[in-house]
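Good day; I would like, with your permission, to put a structural problem before you. What I wish to show you is a protein chain and, alongside it, a tokenised description of its three-dimensional fold. Thank you for your consideration; the sequence and its tokens are set out here:
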Amino acid sequence: MQKKSDVPQGTLALMVLKTLQVLGEQHGYGIARRIEQISGEVLAVNHGTLYPVLLRLEQEGAIASEWGASENNRRARFYKLTRAGHRLLQEETLGWQQTAEIVGRFLNARAEDLA
């Protein structure tokens, strides 16, 4: 059985925004579970890390929230992406794609490429 890893530093906000874009309105536990599922159960979302990220994203205007009832009829805060959140997701996605491309170049570099 593969050990779960924590979400890499600096990626959780992007994962939250993308999850809300794809799935629409979700409560915190639902967001955490979807991130874990999408990762193939490789990542573990620490709820002590998730909720501060949700709060920060809400304070920045990237997401909005309201209280509602969860699937098991418990009171839960539901989050949704705002227009500003859609823009932030586009910017963050571009930045991470560029970073992945640069790291990929290093991982694939050979001595003859650097001469």
Observations:
- The domain at 5-113 is CATH 1.10.10.10 (Arc Repressor Mutant, subunit A).
- Strands lie at 5-6, 26-27, 43-44, 63-69, 75-81.
